[in-house]
Amino acid sequence: MGGTFDPIHHGHLVAASEVAARFALDEVVFVPTGTPWQKKDRKVSSGEDRYIMSAIATSSNPRFTVSRVDIERRGDTYTVDTLKDLRAERGDDVDLFFITGADALAQILTWRGANELFELAHFIGVSRPGMSLEARRSSTCRPIASLCSTCPRWRSRPRIAASGSATGCRSGTSYPTAS
Q1: 44 near 6, Cβ under 8 Å?
Q2: Is the pLDDT of residue 179 over 50?
């Protein structure tokens, strides 16, 4: 699961858990962005702080891990680079699933390396409350569920999901102030 995670919150964890269950993922790897190119106009907490927040927030779920792959790479963070690095790290015998917001996924054809993305991973879009999934449906993405961070009802080949907001694999306190 890929994302800025500034801060990581209950909605991210619920979405990752729900996607892991629906897609029978063995692991969900949370990948906090290093330098989020799309947020250059905003203050974002340091990558290290967001990594630590993610590690703490995911520590109680044995299916969740956190990767430093984007934090350690210099320069702007792009999904294509993240997926290439995870593929090199995990091997070709792993099915990668990239979990992200349906709003972000709707822009996928504008992402750097868009022509390579679907060769590297399967993409799963998760909606936010009030967002119409039907409006986002296309031949390249199928929304699976509308997940709400405030709703109290939420609960081989390796299969791994990466989240940014989250990436997964299938075989997938207090926060510092942005400075």
Answers
A1: yes
A2: no
Residue 121: Cβ-neighbour burial (10 angstroms; 0-12, 13-18, 19+): buried
Please name the residues in contact with 36: beta carbons below 8 A apart, sequence gap of 6 or more. Answer: 4, 44, 76, 77
ω into 7 cis (within 30 of 0) = yes
Whether the CB-CB separation of 163 and 99 falls below 8 Å is answered with yes
Say which residue the tokens 């190119």 belong to.
Answer: 37
- Which amino acid is residue 133, in one-letter code? L
Distance CA 67, CA 31 (A): 5
Q: State which amino acid sits at residue 94.
A: V
Reply yes or no on whether the pLDDT at 164 is more than 50: no
Taking residue 21's Cβ as centre, other Cβ atoms within 10 Å add up to 11
* pLDDT at residue 143, rounded to an integer: 42
Is the pLDDT reported for residue 114 higher than 70? yes
**Is the per-residue pLDDT at 50 higher than 70?**
yes
Q: Model confidence at 158, in pLDDT bands (50, 70, 90)? A: low
Q: Which residues contact 127 (CB under 8 A, 6 or more apart)?
A: 101, 102, 103, 133, 136, 143, 145, 146, 147
- Under DSSP, the state recorded for 13 is H
